């Protein structure tokens, strides 16, 4: 084993170790250092001198020995040396209670008599501050805010020997930021808070408070954005600087008033036509208000007020879009509810009412703005007639005749309803159709027409219409007379009523037939002694005729469809009254009288011829009346001969009549005018020649002849 080493010196510079120095031992490869404290010891193997025993207790007295070691073993311990470890370093607790101070505290150190604490800026600027104390805390003041300081502290024992030192770097808390500014973004309802950076501050905290509400924003820069602010709120903004030492005092609060909230409870009233009243609830922090009213044609007006209502002019039939904004120094409120208000549609203009019949009126008007539907109302009489349509025209039918109506056209919209102040137009319907009650004949060409008057202030016009033309009569009462109606005509009689309001429909037509016309010409021709032919011209309107010849001796009558008639049983030489009745198809009769008629005188009887000397012939007859003149006619092949006796005689002579011929002899009464009568009996006589100048007259009746 190697030799025992000899300790030169042993000392403690750290509270947990003792350093030992010795002279080297030849042949030793290692050395064992032993520090013994009572029953406990600590051993450390080192290569050479000096060597340090670690893991010791501070302020403790140890017996230090050294043993040399080689491959042969360990030497005996060296003579010991007593060495006491130095005091332990105080464990500092450091803080910066303010921006210009650092407070240092520590726990008591065993065996320590006092403490020494020094402080210096870590950047080496400035002077060192040092304090000795027997206490376990102290405060350094008047320091630079936000500055990093290095703090060293150690304890010493009763001999004044210092122990381990403890070094700690501590920064003072920052100073409060200055020049705090708040920029409010009214559109986004957020604020940007900025300030001047403060020395030593690592982070900043912005506090925005309003009542119980607090918003925070943390940043390492010199500005911070605070979002989600509320409208109509007043906030107090402060900034606190932070570093690892703590925080600064918060800055003095800066007041931030946000924009007002959008007005609510907006109401729109049309207090009277053409005037809109917009009102709303008051808004906190709202200094004044602006109301924008934009019509659907693009025109916009606005109103500035510090009150909570505004008046606007409005037009009918427009839709207005209304928004209300509140303002203060921070700006304009957000857009709130945009209300629309549609005014009632305008009343239709250019109203025209035209009657298309007595009970139907067509109403037209110009289209109006804002109208979806139109209602035409005719009020009159005891009821109302309605018509609804989307068109700008309406036909009101089934109106009561002769009735005044107030016609009003209202326009409707789905949004607002109807216009209520439209002016009516007065119209009156045409008179009611009169009802003809009866038609009475006052004469051949005069007819009275009676009707039921059912209109006030109306004039009635009666018209008789037929092929013969038109006849009229007019009255304001209940009847009128048609004059000078032509005979034999058929008419349709109707009546209308006329007033300033118009003309009624015609009444139902009543047929009217006038009595047939009397024939203008009537001719009587005596066919035989007892038969007379009567002929006449056509009587207009007549279907049949009744002719009558009447005398004290009797009557002859004929009823025929024709315009002629043969009447028998006529007494010769008699005066007759002539009458004719024209009868229409409906049985109307016209009695016609004509000039009297006298039948011809009676034909004579007992006609005979006697031969006279000198070739003459005497014609004899028996007259029916001595006052009648007669005429005798002889017709033969050798000539025609006639004679007329003097008044009152019943014979006449014809001289120089040729013999040897057959003569037809007719003796007939002489008429005052007209042709000779041809219906008296004819007798045939043959006149023969006898000798030179004597002949015979022979009567030839039918197959016989008389010779004279």
TrEMBL record:
Pfam families: fn3. Residues 1-88, 89-175, 176-261, 262-346, 430-517 form the Fibronectin type-III domain. PROSITE patterns: FN3. Transmembrane segments: none annotated. InterPro entries: FN3_dom, FN3_sf, Ig-like_fold. SMART domains: FN3. CDD domains: FN3. Gene3D superfamilies: Immunoglobulins (2.60.40.10). It comes from the Eukaryota. This is FNDC7 protein. It comes from Hypocryptadius cinnamomeus.
